[in-house]
Each structure stands twice: as structure tokens, then as C-alpha cells.
Automatic annotation (TrEMBL):
Residues 122-205 form the Phosphoribosyltransferase domain. Belongs to the ComF/GntX family. InterPro entries: ComF/GntX_DNA_util-trans, PRTase-like, PRTase_dom. This is ComF family protein. It comes from Flagellimonas allohymeniacidonis. It comes from the Bacteria. PANTHER family: DNA UTILIZATION PROTEIN YHGH (PTHR47505:SF1). The lineage of its organism: Bacteria, Pseudomonadati, Bacteroidota, Flavobacteriia, Flavobacteriales.
Length: 217
């Protein structure tokens, strides 16, 4: 097996990334206590408690390669890789001690059937495992099969995600603090749409996390 970052052959004990690429991962070091760039994306948009992301995304590099493998090359294990690494850090984050459920951003059923899996779900599942909380994939559904948002600006992304998600208001919701999880935060439009729906469930607090965030500037 070769490294998903640089294509060199992996040595014994290495998983998905070689030691060099793992060392070079652009970690954000954002936490759920201090203000950070993810928080600022959502200021004035949703009543979110806190946000953070694991790594920085760039047009070229290790993170892009890994996410491409995750989303388009049937490499769902990349989600586990990120979830276990990030989860091992988040379980020590004092800002998440009252989170009681992790909710992944859903795919439209047609797109999930075509891909074979939701690329966010295994990442979310491993975060829930490390945080010792529930994973819930029923609270939120995607009801409109939107086209890719990658090349759209903030306004077009918001329009593209508006009314694309619906909260399951018929479900019993014993949760107070939801950690909403996605793969990449660019403008925040997807998470904003999802959070607004989850807030319809009643007296809940929303925090957000992602595998990657696109740095501003």
C-alpha cells in the first residue's frame, strides 16, 4: 500500500499516510474554548456555541489528496483515520464535555446510494466513540439533491443549500448539545442550513466540527 499523501510505499505500522506526511499535516490546533477562524465564519449567522476544524484545506497537498480519496475513490477508511486522530484530541477538549450527540451532515439518498456511503458518517462515528456520546443519523435528512457547491461563492452556496435539509421533528430528542459534523468548511453555508434546521428541534445548543477548513486570505 502507498501513502495517500506522497505515493511512497508505506512501512510497517504506517496507515494511509507515511510518517513524513503525517508530520506535515497542516493541523489548525483550534479548540472549543478559544475564539478561532471557524467561529468567525458563523458570527451573526447562526446561534452556534462553538466551532473548530482539524486541518487546513488547500488546493494542493496532503489534505486535498486524502479527501479526494475519501469522496471519490471509495476509500471510506480515510474517514476513520481522521476521526480517530481528531477524536483522540477532542476527548481532552474541555469545551466539548457537555456534548451528548454527534450528527453528521447527511447526503441525499440518491447520492449516497451512488457513492455507497456518506463520507462524513464514519468520521462522525469515530468522534462519537472517542467522546463517548451517541451518533445520530436520523435527526437530519437531506431532502433536495443539490449539485456540488465547490466553485460557488457564499451567496450561491447559501441559495444552493437553502431548504435542502430538514430536521426530523417527529423524533424524540433527548439531547441538549449537538456536535454537527461535516468534511470541509468553505463558506459555512451547508452547516448554517443544517444548524438552522436542528434548532427547530427545541432547546438545543449547536457546535460544529469538520475534517478541514479553507483558510481565509
Amino acid at each position: 500500500m502507498v501513502c495517500f499523501g506522497c505515493n511512497v510505499r508505506l512501512s510497517r505500522g504506517e496507515n494511509l499516510l507515511c510518517t513524513v506526511c503525517r508530520h506535515d499535516m497542516p493541523l489548525t490546533e483550534y479548540n472549543f474554548i478559544d475564539e478561532n477562524a471557524v467561529d468567525r465564519i458563523f458570527y451573526g449567522r447562526i446561534p452556534m456555541k462553538k466551532g473548530a476544524s482539524f486541518v487546513f484545506f488547500s488546493k494542493n497537498g496532503i489534505v486535498k489528496n486524502l479527501l479526494h480519496q475519501l469522496k471519490y475513490k471509495n476509500q471510506e477508511e480515510v474517514g476513520r483515520f481522521f476521526g480517530d486522530w481528531y477524536g483522540s484530541l477532542l476527548k481532552r477538549d474541555k469545551g466539548l464535555q457537555d456534548v451528548d450527540v454527534v450528527v453528521p451532515v447527511p447526503l441525499h439518498p440518491r447520492k449516497e446510494k451512488k457513492r455507497g456511503y456518506n463520507q462524513v458518517r464514519l468520521f462522525a462515528k469515530r468522534l462519537a466513540h472517542h467522546l463517548k456520546v451517541d451518533l445520530n443519523t436520523d435527526l437530519l435528512v437531506k431532502v433536495r439533491n443539490t449539485k456540488t457547491q465547490t466553485k460557488k461563492d457564499r451567496q450561491l452556496r447559501w441559495l444552493g443549500t437553502k431548504e435542502a435539509f430538514k430536521a426530523n421533528t417527529t423524533a424524540s430528542v433527548p439531547y441538549k448539545h449537538i456536535l454537527l459534523v461535516d468534511d470541509v468548511i468553505t463558506t459555512g453555508a451547508t452547516l448554517e442550513a443544517c444548524a438552522n434546521e436542528l434548532l427547530q428541534l427545541g432547546d438545543v445548543t449547536i457546535s460544529v466540527a469538520s475534517i478541514a477548513v479553507v483558510p481565509k486570505g
